[in-house]
């Protein structure tokens, strides 16, 4: 088991930042940030891993990720199809990654290796249609994340508990590990050209689902890098149709790649990424996150109005929420609640923001509970008991 070494990783990050003048294939600094699409040397489908970009040009890096993971997939090898163009019909690259359901099998069986998982072609995670985060979100893991879970038996809840009993403080996913969380909404035939969509046939009835929410986390930093995107219809159309599940954009967007410095809430797409004229031009970056607080000490916020539509939007923080991803030596797979126990005026649960209170990780006597940290990956709560 690889144990985290934050000091070593922090030193490597500092080195990256100090050496930003060194040319590389993913140099997004300064004026190059405006031309990130061409800076990757004609390989927009390539999954990026760039600590410097994540820290210094987070919005541009988010769009770079967006293009890569939404590039059309080659379903024969579970990779991006270099022969296709962004916006072509078919599965996106992230849709041929391994699903949560394929990773955490009953009885903590060892999941298939990546190649066999690809051959099995179990690509779609069909929505149920009630728009709740518990039922309708699709979760996918890229090869690095999936192999780390598989190789270290983290699909077993018992193994997680064994690590906690051994005193392992934290696990540590490799740089480049990624996870995507997606939300869907029922759309019409007329909507298809504006959405990335899929069809579900059940009992002779065809239902069309459009991708409405898209959240990606990428291991570029100890705290990971977070970016969330939404379809433009989430701002007002779907809240009017499904008010219990879509809150609308009550938290403003923040996008320095697409917007001018004096209007970071412009809700546009950036130039130079090949997005114009495609279905992806209807999606917006709502924001990015990689720290608990900003440089003035204020908690950073990142919310997705669909995926987190059942929670208070102004108290949503990916880094804070996922920092609570731990497992004890026994008990529940999610021992710490992601909400405070309070509600907002609309009755929606309030989440934690900013740096966490250490008391959260202590028992009633004030003693630290020997949790193993799950490296911000809440998906590991789906681990199964061994038979």
What's the short story on this structure?
20% of the residues lie in helices and 17% in strands. The protein is α+β, with helices and mostly antiparallel strands. The protein has one domain (6-382).
Describe it for me?
β1 and β2 form a beta hairpin. This protein is α+β, with helices and mostly antiparallel strands and 387 residues long. The N terminus is likely disordered. Helices cover 20% and strands 17% of the residues. The strands form 4 sheets. Strands 3, 4, 5, 6, 7, 8 and 9 form a 7-stranded antiparallel β-sheet that branches. A two-stranded antiparallel ribbon has the order 1-2. It is globular.
Would you spell out the secondary-structure blueprint of this structure?
Blueprint: H1 6-18, H2 36-39, H3 51-56, H4 58-69, E1 73-74, E2 79-80, E3 98-99, H5 100-103, H6 114-120, H7 133-136, E4 138-141, H8 143-151, H9 157-165, E5 178-187, E6 197-202, E7 205-218, E8 225-231, H10 237-241, E9 283-289, H11 318-323, E10 326-327, E11 339-343, E12 349-351, E13 372-373
Antiparallel strand pairs: 1-2, 3-4, 4-5, 5-7, 6-7, 7-8, 8-9, 10-13, 11-12
